Amino acid sequence: MKRRTLPVATALAATAALLLTACGGGEDDKSSDNDKIAGADQGSKKPTKSAEPTGAAKDKPDGVDVSLPKDMNLDLVFDWDKPKAKNEAAAMDDAANYIRAMYRGVGKRTAEDASVTAYSTGDGRHYAEVQTKEWVKGGWTATGTRRHYDATTRSTTNGNSVEVAFCTDSGKFYAKEVKTGKILKTKPSLEDFSYFRIIMVKYPTSDSLWQASKVFVEEEATKCQ
């Protein structure tokens, strides 16, 4: 068994409209030809005091630790080029930090890590919490390599929301049983590929911090092969 994101059936039941499973290229998927970003009106909420930015450091963008526990042996690869627009580049960086924060929570066995609080708000935080709790409940941690690539960005007119979309390849990304250390591997398949759209919103009192407010996922994304 390989853990990438929460299984579709469970995710839909647990997160209602949070986790959107779509068919790429269908008539209902109008994100490519609609200038309005779905969920972009989601406001950013202030992180708790422990997660407020205090200065940049290695593995601590915005002063928040997003490093992964070493015993996970997990490599999150972000194989993409930054956009030229400053806001979109910052939103893309923090979308990556949001992913790091989520798996840091998996490794730390908690859905309430300060990094998740810093890099998410609203439905984005709920998504991260549900994902993390399912890993913990199952008795798994994550290991291997998860690649993120083919990223694109687009902004709302006011520049306060940015959609960061990208593909993921989980072909070498596995669940590992915490108690036994057994790595749960499966054969490569279309299930290894997903397409994410994360709505990032600007933190009200910072010029650089962005938070994930909504997450949409297309599983078995043929466009990512």
Descriptive account of the structure:
The chain is globular. It is an alpha+beta fold and 225 residues long. Helix 2 (86-108) runs parallel beside helix 4 (122-138). The protein starts with 7 loop residues before the first helix and ends in a 6-residue tail after the last strand. It has four helices and six strands. Strands 1, 2, 3, 4, 5 and 6 form a six-stranded mixed beta sheet that branches.
Give the topology.
Layout lengths: L7 H8 L58 E6 L6 H23 L5 H6 L2 H17 L1 E16 L5 E17 L5 E2 L8 E10 L7 E10 L6
Parallel strand pairs: 1-2
Antiparallel strand pairs: 2-3, 3-4, 3-5, 5-6
Helix pairs in contact: 2-4
Characteristics of this structure?
single chain; alpha+beta; six-stranded mixed sheet; 4 helices; 24% helix
Which residues sit in consecutive blocks of at least 5 with pLDDT less than 50? 6-35, 42-57
Report the sheet-strand fraction: 25-35%
| Major sheet | 6 strands, mixed
Helix percentage: 10-25%
How does the overall form come out from the CA principal axes? globular
Figure out the total of helices.
4
Radius of gyration: 16 Å
User: Average pLDDT across residues?
Assistant: 81
- Topology pattern, helix = H, strand = E: HEHHHEEEEE
What structural class is derived from the secondary structure elements?
A: alpha+beta
Give the number of DSSP strands. Answer: 6
N-C termini distance: 20 Å
